[in-house]
Amino acid sequence: MTPKKPKTHQRHQSAHLQPSDQYDSDIPLPPTQDIPPQRTNAELNLSVLQRHLSSTTSIVSIAPYAVVYIFTSTPQNGPAWEKSGIEGTLFICQQTPESMNGGERYSVIILNRKGLNDFICPLSGDIDYEAGYIILRSPSDEAVEENIWGLWIFEEDEGSSTAGMRELNAKIIQDCAARAAKNVSTYR
């Protein structure tokens, strides 16, 4: 008598399961789509900003995190800075030139991470940098009562990517505001 062979499990390919490119379905296959071209972060940021302010043509500078404060003054409490609830990435942007005189236009845009209201402020000549805050005033012809905002920009110690970010962006905002104001005063 011959010894019994141990049972081993062998996998068998089923003859009726053949790989196929076509599936039986009543639903038509979607048309093949081309892969969209890769876009850089700068191109993506610009397209997002143009949805908020369509006249934006380029990004001059970016700060990864900024907070907007509003200057208030009441008889009871006196002058004070209050958080506006707007904080997020700060963009300094160039807009399309003025239609009348072709003058340069710039704005500061902060895309709010905490809510739906973003901060968009056109830059004019009156910008200060005091105690770590960039002080912006609303142009007098756009508001009955002057609004004063303080922008605080996050920065880390030396050696990090955000070191010196506050002072650098303050200088860029002041330069852009001066260029925009120069074109406005030349026209008037």
What does this structure look like?
The protein is of the alpha+beta class and about 190 residues long. About 20% of the residues lie in helices and about 35% in strands. It has two helices and seven strands. It is elongated.
Kindly summarize this structure in a few lines.
This protein is α+β, with helices and mostly antiparallel strands and 188 residues long.
List keywords for this structure.
188 residues, 7 strands, 7-stranded antiparallel beta sheet, 2 helices
Task: Set down the secondary structure blueprint.
Layout: H1 41-52, E1 56-74, E2 78-95, E3 105-112, E4 119-122, E5 127-130, E6 133-137, E7 148-153, H2 165-187
Antiparallel strand pairs: 1-2, 1-7, 2-3, 3-4, 5-6, 6-7
Rg from Cα: 29 Å
- Largest sheet composition: 7 strands, antiparallel
Put simply, the count of helices is: 2
Q: What does the oligomeric state look like here?
A: single chain
Elements, N to C (H/E):
HEEEEEEEH
User: Helix content range of the residues, please?
Assistant: 10-25%
Overall average residue pLDDT: 82
Strand content: 25-35%
Residue runs with pLDDT of under 50 for 5 or more positions = none
Estimated structural class? alpha+beta
What's the total number of strands?
Answer: 7
How far apart are the first and last residues' alpha carbons, in Å?
A: 116 Å
Spatial sequence of strands, sheet with the most strands: 4-3-2-1-7-6-5
Shape: elongated
